[in-house]
Amino acid sequence: EYIQPLETQKKNEEKPAQQPVVQEAESSASDSVSAYNSAIEKYLQTYGINMEDGIRYSADKPGKYKLMLGAYSKFDAPRRVKLAEFIEKKDMEGYAIEVHALKGNAYGIGANNLAKIALQHEQKSKEKDFDFVQGNFNYLQEEMDLVMRGIKQILDDDILLDIAVMKDPSKKEKDAASK
Question: What's this model's pTM, rounded to 2 decimal places?
Fold first, then answer.
């Protein structure tokens, strides 16, 4: 069964009541954790980007994650051209290599649904299933579009440097003390 792009999945599902990921007893810590959960949930639900995974894959450094998002977005347009060219040429070997790289990059930034779709395309291209790849390429592109909108929004919101403090308010005090 084909893994649907996130926006298609959302259209087909009822939204469950959102539960906070973390609960704290102290009110100030609770407010911070609530803000953190809201921020994380926003990008996950809206754009399919799990920022917690992306930050974790970036050595738990939001600044490094920001660089990863920038690098990912820089290579998006050239990757799309290459993928389309491989389909046009019916080059399933080249397509498999490029979509494999997309899969790894998507996992690296926390775009897990995109990574799963890319994995499915990688497997089908290795099986030389051109009809599947060509027939479902638009779904891959749809998810890539969604992730790129998410990256733009994350960078525009400039939330990454605040996210660590939201998760652990003591970091703000440590940062202030180190200055």
Answer: 0.77
